[in-house]
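Bit of a strange request maybe. I'm writing a small parser for structure token strings and I need a real example to test against, not something I typed by hand. Could someone generate the tokens for this chain?
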Amino acid sequence: MRLPRRRLLAVLGVCTVSACVPDPTIHGVPTAASPSPEPTQPSHVADLTVRLVGVLAALPGQPDPFASGATAQVQAWLGRLRRLDPLTAGEPFFPEPPAPSPGDLSEAIAAAVAAASRCVEASGTQPERLLHLSILAGSTGLANTSLAPSPREAEPAPFEEMAQDELATRALTHVWALLQGIERGLGVIATDDPLRDGVLARREEVRFLRNEILTTLGTRRPLQDAHYEFPAVVDADSFRSTWVTLELAVLDAVTALAAATPDPWRDRMTAQVGKVQAAGGGLPTWPGWVTP
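Reply from user aminoacidic:
Good idea to test on real output. This should exercise your parser:
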């Protein structure tokens, strides 16, 4: 049967176009996908781990309980920094740098403090900044070898970023409580007790810190509680114990505030490290991190 000319051309046209379509079949072996790059430790964090290993190398020969407490503290920091995510649970991923020859402890601590400061400046989030501030505060405290670190349960963990005003209000509450504790202490410390002059001087410093926080808050300042709950202060010894607790609470609060607004609170945090130790307190492993 003969096809009409128009239908024949149509069929030939379709065949001609079809013949021009490339063959979709893939010939040969497909190229293997490139492997994912191996995770690398940020350079500022890697530098801090090197400096902390230097502190570890300089600790042998220091007196206990400082040496054992400082060793545990630094090892805890290294265990976190060597994780893929230092804020979450997991085993260390990055190798620990080789231990250097033992050096001068004060020089090793100064190098660690400088490296921790660089990590604070390079931090991209508030939780990451708080982690590095915590190590900065703890490293600063290691310069006082007469006081061993004092471990506690609180450890770094992810959290939602908090506003400066919320953290400043929390810090102000702890500063008010410290002032009230100091006033109670002055009421029971004998006038001829050498402790009294130091507590009087500290009261003026805490008042200055209070005023700084009030300036930050401006008209958003909270009402002050008339009474804060803490153990009874009946003599100089009971005051000393309460004093340490209150100074530590201020350190935690100011460290958290510095994570939101580093300037000027990072400097206030490092100054507060010395105030805790002057009261006789050892620093926790993770200043600024508290249990809910």
